Amino acid sequence: QVQLVESGGGSVQGGGSLRLSCAASGYTYCNYDMSWYRQAPGKEREFVAGIDSDGSTSYADSVKGRFTISQDNDKRTLFLQMNSLKSEDTAVYYCQSYQWGGSWCDSHNYWGQGTQVTVSS
């Protein structure tokens, strides 16, 4: 039922910044946590940053101090502010929404289609 659409990717020089957005729709009464993942060419998808329903955030060590995850006030848009970008950040970035199981909800992962981020050195 949840649909996620990423935007904001593009090409940037090393040291530059990008802000990714993820627009979510179709949310129900279920509880959700949201995260950003990325997948570089030839690599497995990896966790980048997450934010839970209480607003607590977490980050991969590789992006700590450079990336910031946030949500808008209605929690229907997820953001990833990326600063001091490095060539190693080049990847397709995916928005993820984890639906917690509950009385009327099944646990489920929802994924966006991804947005390309390319950082040139």
Explain this structure.
This protein has strands spanning 3-7, 10-13, 18-25, 32-39, 46-51, 57-59, 67-71, 77-82, 91-99, 108-111, 115-120. By secondary structure, it is mostly beta strands. Strands 2, 4, 5, 6, 9, 10 and 11 form a 7-stranded mixed beta sheet that branches. A 4-stranded antiparallel beta sheet has the order 1-3-8-7, with no helix packed on it. A hairpin with an 8-residue loop joins strand 9 (91-99) and strand 10 (108-111). The protein is elongated and about 50 Å long.
Briefly, what is this?
With 121 residues, the protein is mainly beta. The chain has strands at residues 3-7, 10-13, 18-25, 32-39, 46-51, 57-59, 67-71, 77-82, 91-99, 108-111, 115-120.
Run of helices and strands: EEEEEEEEEEE
The N- and C-terminal alpha carbons lie at a distance of: 40 Å
Computed Rg: 14 Å
Quaternary structure type: single chain
**General form:** elongated
Count every helix, treating DSSP H or I runs of 4 or more residues as helices: 0
Fraction of residues in helix? under 10%
What's the average pLDDT?
94
Structural class: mainly beta
Main beta-sheet strand count, sense and barrel state: 7 strands, mixed
Strand content: over 45%
Tally of DSSP β-strands: 11
Ranges with pLDDT <50 over ≥5 residues? none
